Amino acid sequence: xxxxxxxxxxxxxxxKRTIFFLLSGCALFLGSCGGSKYAGTEKVYKNKARDFSILxxxxxxxxxxxxxxxxxxxxxxxxxxxxxxPNYVMIHHTAxxxxxxxxxxxxxxxxxxxxxxxxxxxxxxxxxxxxxxRGHHAGAGRWGNDTDLNxxxxxxxxxxxxxxxxxxxxxxxxxxxxxxxxxxxxxIPQANFIGHMDYAPTRKVDPSRFPWKxxxxxxxxxxxxxxxxxxxxxxxxxxxxxxxxxxxxxLDAAIKAFKVHYIQDGTSTADLSPKDLRILxxxxxxxx
Length: 288
What we know:
Layout: H1 3-34, H2 39-57, E1 88-93, H3 99-106, E2 117-119, E3 125-127, H4 149-152, E4 153-158, H5 169-186, E5 193-195, H6 196-199, H7 212-216, H8 237-244, H9 251-262, H10 274-286
Parallel strand pairs: 1-4, 1-5, 2-4
Antiparallel strand pairs: 2-3
């Protein structure tokens, strides 16, 4: 083989290797950066998670303790600590038109809202936040003595427009499976599965027209028995609602929220019929 021929062969082989590496690099780049329409928001999530992990690992003498204005101080780490333990599950309806629209809302930094899970009408479960992170789904409100359920709860959004949408079996079945996992994993008490309207009765009505009895039958929240006994003559509805967990500062709002959850009829008024009072008494007894 002539010298020129050997040079041509070598150039050809070099070109093949160069093209192979270029194509491989492009494939990797496209796979990591352009393969998902959520690649950009996933990068934001990972960066925020990384920043939080740095805070968790930080030794306070380097940061927090250094800001305390005393001379004699020392960092000595304890062996007894843990991460956030969710103690409530709060259920919402999205009041939007699709699962995709809600995902887009939770990617909107200006909106500033999020939930740990979304469940579509077809039963698809989308997790958007690690259970151990604090979501932005509850907002201002009160349940019992807790005024910050963002810090102590897991938020679940159900894809439903809040007015005319039915609750498909596939969606509720998926919700029940998810609730069973959360209850078992975090040892969440049966009483601590609530709706957004329970926690924020002056602001919210979600989830509306919701099959709470179906959940209660599976051990997620309480429901009343078919046979209702009369409430005692001295029965105090305000006290009963407070014991259940409602904020009774605005009694009318608390009554309406109770009716959205347990009665689902005449929810626009704060009147309690004789049957409503029997239902309230039945639920009250499960909390004492």
